[in-house]
Structure formats: structure tokens, C-alpha cells
UniProtKB/TrEMBL annotation, chains A, B:
This is tRNA(Met) cytidine acetate ligase. It catalyses: cytidine(34) in elongator tRNA(Met) + acetate + ATP = N(4)-acetylcytidine(34) in elongator tRNA(Met) + AMP + diphosphate. ATP binds at residues 7-20, 102, 163, 188. InterPro entries: Rossmann-like_a/b/a_fold, tRNA(Met)_cyd_acetate_ligase. The gene is tmcAL.
């Protein structure tokens, strides 16, 4: 029983994801696949376009055998926290043989070379990093410049894409955890994550979402599998999505005008705090708020993470209290997934959560899990049907 | 210079209001009129259908000379607090000769008789009240039954309408303040406040609002002056209203699910607190939330006041900190209004606020005033144009 692990969001699942999954299976030669997937809020720092159960169904239809939820605390944090949470969770299962992720060039060696420096921090690198940070540029940029000094490589190209940034973080986490999971990478196909154009064979999830928000499902048919289309169509008909960050504009602007404490939130520095409060006096919309704040120093991604954590009442202390997820929340599985679950039950130390009503009995510390419950209760405020509440307790596990 | 005072909401101003204003002027024989008006949130415990500047314009067009804002802390509280805040404000002006209000029967004597008992609390009344309260019925009902024991009168009829309840509270406040303002009452015309039918010569503001929300302005033309219609039409075209409580459903349900402390809010008892938290887990809408909670014991009105105070972050402590409004916030005036303002400047102890940017200089305690500013910033979250913010600082005083 060889088991492949993947870390996904499927927001929504498109042809590029399908390609990646098939390529990963054949590269790793695994016959079982486990996905750790973001729940109702994702790493971009916003709600997913449809909820976690709908995206779990997409995952199973695509050929994933078991879907486990990445706790929202990690799913909505920096690339480093996201990766650490997801890799630690996969590692804690004690059954995963390979982790396969996309990267721009599909070259695991050049990524490992970078990671070695980042983890070991040899003196020339550390010195350079320190110098650059003094000049007030972002950490990401300082790191890039410092790496350039010690590696004879096209370091900018490698670090500029979000796929590679995540890839490096996955590798860092594996190394840190001394995990036996073997990393593999697949060369990513299609346009960059940030491209919003729909053309060619593949489209990015961002461009697909943008087109769905602007014009519905019609334009994106060639870029998503038929099952994704059907799941999205049915969801939208029921008034369950597409969910955008704008649905939470009133809540967030209101909270900021009420001077909800920002200093308790991860990655908030004092200058940024005041910028955010001030901007909340100037607009009623989140997208405009972000535009007002973002700068070279404060990236859009950082602001989004902060706002999402504010929305979900996620305090930075939670990252100190936990070293990775303390539960395995099952979102869905197929028959092969049941076999994997049996293995996990035998080999993992973490409690497996299938019946939500039992969570208090199963967990010593419920804080992280209750953030997932709250995230769902916030997410469904965007649904047309106002009686949809407490969905984590009511929604069945997805089985196909 | 004889000056009439009225306490209004004009939500929106309709023909019944117009009748009341003209009748009050002729009964009091005054040639100047000052209105104390609720701002962006009203006594029903919800947002006004259009903002305070639009309703000020209606008031001036109807023949009011000077419009003063009733601080939101009082405007959104119980009948007792509402009346006390408004009467105290009128009294503090030191220029008002008469206060004229509507009542169902237009009989000031029978109202004064009731008020005497309520203020002096003779032993038979006090005893009876105590007995009834023991049985767990609402204070309003216990008071009614106790009054019935000591007054030979159709007390139920008198106390059952919100107009009379307010009338009694106005008289109580005048008595408490030993105010020189002479009370007058006009028999109310048209259907009861609670009637939602549109028929006959007059319609209630509630029925007019309901029809506007359901079907726009068409049905209500016969019940509102033309200027009201034009002001509403223009506002709606700009996406500024009609504003309903539902616009704030997400914020309120979110706050309740976040366990925002209810115990700090006026009129919250422990049983009610838990009922409200529980109900917030069952629906995403405010109207449904209220339906789930309301009972003989917890009236809809009480729940609405609590939710509005939660929305506006109004803590019950503010009622202890202040004994009535500590400022005179001018919303609008005509030429005669300027004359009244000159008189007020001479005779009143309270600071007059016309330029909002000066409020910190003018007020020793800014807390109550800042609640008005915050209320406006919450209110305009319901506007289509997302750049409308900080309106108290930007909107000119209404002058005609």
C-alpha cells in the first residue's frame, strides 16, 4: 500500500489540478491518494468560492481517495504557516510515502538546494539577510536577495511564483520535521497563478474564479472538468456561492470601525495597524480597503491574511499554543479511502474526527477545532437560505 | 417669541405628521417650532428608512424651523429613556414654551392623572405593582394592572398604544425635571401605529415603510406629502435607502456567534442573554432571530433595542454616566430657526454643535457624541456607494 499525499485547495478544481493529480500518481507510482485540503477559507486570505464539502466532492471525483481538512488557522495564514500545518498533518498520519507538489520548473534539486540554505542559514547568507532587512524591505524580498548572494542560480525566477514559494515551504517543513515522506515535484502547466486571462489549454484558479464572478460559468467550461461545472451550477442555483470576500465587507469594516484589537493578530505591526484603521474610515468595501493599504512594504497577501484572521477571530497566540494540527478531520472518502483510514487509525497518534458532535470528548484542546466550526458559521452567512447554520454538525461526510 | 417643541422621528414624514404639526401650532398658538428628532437609528430599535439629513429636509419643508438631533443613545432605547433624553434636551434649550405630542384620545387630564400616580407611587399602587411583578409578567403589564387598581378609568385602552405610552413618559420626564415647558396633546388621527393596512385618510409610518420595502413608492403616494416622495425617490435612486434592519443581519449574527458580551447592554437579563445567543446559531437573519426569541416575557421591542445597542456598541453604563444629552447637535434650520438658535445660544448651558470637527473642543465628555458619529458610520454601510463614509464630518447642515 503506497500512499501519495497532496496539499490542495481546489478553489475550484480545474483541468490543471486534474493533470497535476494524474502526473503525481504516475510519478510516485502510488495507488492511494490522500489530500489535505483548505476548508471554507483559503490561503489567499479569503473565503473559498464554494464550501469545503462541495470541493471535497470535486476532489473525490477527480480521483482523490481521502480528503482531510487543513485547520482554518493554518489554511488562512502565511505560506510558511500554511505549509507547516499541512505538512505536519500529513506527517502525523504516519502512512504517507510521498508528497507531490507543483513547481514552475519541476526540478526538485534546485528547490532542495535553496531549502538547505534557508534551514541551515550559513553565515554569508545570514549576514546578507540581516543587511537587507535593515533597509526596510519585505522579508520575502530580503530573503531573495540574500539567497542570490550565495547561490549561483536564477533565484529570482524561482522565488517569484507562489507555487515555488509554497514548494520551498513544504520542503522546509519536511526537513524541520525530519519526516520520512519523500518529496516529488511536477512541472506546473498553464499560466501563472496571477494571470487572469482565460486562454490556452489551462487556466489558473484565480482567472476561473474571476470569470465566474463576472460572467457566471459559461466562459470557464473548457478549463474545468464537467463534474466541477455541475457541482458549481447546482450550488449557485441553491444560493450557496459563489462566495467572495465582499460578502464580509460590512462585518470587517464594522469591526475595524469598532476598533477591534488588531494587535492580537498574526503579522500585524504597529504601522500597519494604524493604516488599516484609517483606511476603514474611507471605504465600505474590503477590496477598496486592501487597495488603500497595500504597498511594497505591506503586501496584499499579508493584508488579506490579517483581515481573514480578524474575521475569524484567530489570535496569533494560537500559533504558539499548537505545534501543528491536533486532529484529523475527515471531509470525505471513497472505498480506497476507507482502507487508508484503517491504516491511519492504526498508525497515527492524532484523534480522527468523523462525528463532529464527539469533538469535545476526543480533543484535549478544542481551540483550533472550534475555529473551524466558527469559520463555517461565518462562511454560511453568505448563503441565500438563512436557516443554514451549524453546518459542521449537520453536513454528512462525502462518500462516493 | 413663543416656541413650540415637538419630538419626532419622521420615518418618513407623512400626512398624519403634517396634520399633527399644524394642529400643534394652532393649539399652542406658537409661531416658532423646534423638533428634537431621532438620527439614523430610531425608537423602534432599527435604522431609519433614510438618513437624518434627508428627514431633516422633510421636517423643514413641513414647517419645522429648527431640527436638533436626539442622541442615538436615547433614540434607540426604551420609551422611558427615549422620552427622558428628548424632554431633557428640549428643557435644556431654555427657550421652549410648549411641548405638544399626539395621543389616542387627546385628553391631557387623564394622562396627567396617570403620571401623578406613576411618579408619586402611592402605597396601594406600589403594593399592587410589587405583587404583579412577582408573577413574572412584563413591567408594562404589571404597571397597567396596578394602575387599574387605583384609577377608575379605562386604563387598558390608554396604555395599550405606543403613542400614549410615550405621552405618559414625556409627562413623567417634565414632572421629574420640574420643567417650565407646558404639555399639550393632540388627538391622533388615522390607524394605530401597529396597523399595516393602507386605507382611509391617514396611514401609519410603519405601514408606509412596509409598503415601500415591498413595492416601492407607488402605493404610498396618497399618504405622504409630495416633498417626502421626492426626497425618498432621489435617495433611493442614489442607492441611499430604503435602509432596513436586514442590512445589518450579517454583522449582528456574526457578533452574537462571536459571543460579543450582551451583559453590558441595557435591559439584558441572564435568561434573555442565553436565548439570544442560542437563536443566533439557528438563523442568519435578524427578523427570524427576533421571532425565535420574542415571547410574552421578552417583547419584540425590548429585543430590538438590545440588538440595536449591540450593533452600535452602546453600553448600559452610558446611561449612568450622563443625565440627558450633553450637547445640542443642529441638523437643520430655516430663517426663523436662526432666530431660535440665537435665543438658545443666549439661554442654554449646553454647547451647540454645528461644526462637527470642533466637537472635541466643545465637549468635556465626548462619549455620547461619538456614539452618534459611529451610528452614522454603521448606517452608511448600507449605502450602494462604498465611498460614503464619515458623513457627519462631510454633510452640510440642512438650510432652507
Amino acid at each position: 500500500m503506497k500512499i501519495l499525499g497532496v496539499i490542495v485547495e481546489y478553489n475550484p478544481l480545474h483541468n490543471g489540478h486534474l493533470y497535476h493529480l494524474q502526473a503525481s500518481k504516475s510519478l510516485s507510482n502510488c495507488d492511494y491518494t490522500v489530500a489535505v485540503m483548505s476548508g471554507n477559507f483559503v490561503q489567499r486570505g479569503e473565503p473559498a468560492i464554494v464550501d469545503k464539502w462541495k470541493r471535497t466532492l470535486m476532489a473525490l471525483k477527480a480521483g482523490i481517495d481521502l480528503v482531510i481538512e487543513l485547520p482554518v488557522v493554518y489554511a488562512t495564514s502565511t505560506a510558511e504557516n500554511f505549509a507547516y500545518g499541512a505538512v505536519k498533518l500529513l506527517d502525523s498520519l504516519n502512512v504517507i510515502d510521498y508528497l507531490c507538489f507543483g513547481s514552475e520548473r519541476g526540478n526538485i534539486e534546485e528547490l532542495l538546494e535553496i531549502v538547505q540554505i534557508l534551514v541551515e542559514e550559513p553565515p554569508p547568507y545570514k549576514q546578507a539577510l540581516k543587511e537587507y532587512l535593515k533597509n526596510g524591505i519585505t522579508f520575502a524580498k530580503a530573503r531573495e536577495l540574500a539567497l542570490k548572494k550565495v547561490i549561483n542560480n536564477e533565484i529570482e525566477k524561482i522565488l517569484q511564483t507562489s507555487n515555488n514559494i509554497l514548494a520551498i515551504e513544504y520542503l522546509k517543513s519536511l526537513k524541520k520535521l525530519k519526516s520520512p515522506i519523500k518529496p516529488l515535484t511536477i512541472k506546473r502547466k498553464g499560466p501563472l497563478y496571477t494571470s487572469l486571462e482565460l486562454k490556452g489549454e489551462f487556466a489558473s484558479a484565480s482567472s476561473i474564479r474571476k470569470h465566474i464572478f463576472d460572467r457566471g460559468l459559461k466562459d470557464v467550461e473548457n478549463y474545468i472538468p464537467n463534474f466541477t461545472k455541475e457541482i458549481l451550477k447546482e450550488s449557485f442555483l441553491k444560493g450557496e456561492g459563489p462566495v467572495s470576500f465582499e460578502e464580509f465587507s460590512k462585518i470587517l469594516i464594522y469591526k475595524l470601525r469598532s476598533k477591534a484589537p488588531l494587535e492580537d493578530i498574526f503579522d500585524v505591526s504597529e504601522g500597519l495597524e494604524n493604516k488599516i484603521y484609517k483606511a476603514s474610515q474611507l471605504t465600505n468595501r474590503i477590496d477598496e480597503l486592501i487597495k488603500l493599504i497595500k504597498s511594497k512594504r505591506y503586501t496584499e497577501s499579508r493584508i488579506r491574511h490579517i483581515l481573514t484572521h480578524l474575521l475569524l477571530n484567530i489570535d496569533k497566540k494560537i500559533f504558539e499554543e499548537f505545534d501543528g494540527p491536533n486532529y484529523i478531520r475527515i471531509l470525505g472518502f471513497n472505498k480506497k479511502g476507507i482502507e487508508i483510514l484503517k491504516e491511519i487509525k492504526k498508525k497515527s497518534q492524532l484523534p480522527i474526527i468523523t462525528k463532529i458532535s464527539h469533538y469535545k470528548r476526543k480533543l484535549n484542546n478544542v481551540k483550533m477545532f472550534e475555529k473551524d466550526l466558527f469559520a463555517t458559521d461565518v462562511y454560511t452567512l453568505a448563503y441565500k437560505n438563512s436557516s443554514i447554520t451549524g453546518l459542521d454538525f449537520k453536513h454528512p461526510i462525502i462518500k462516493i
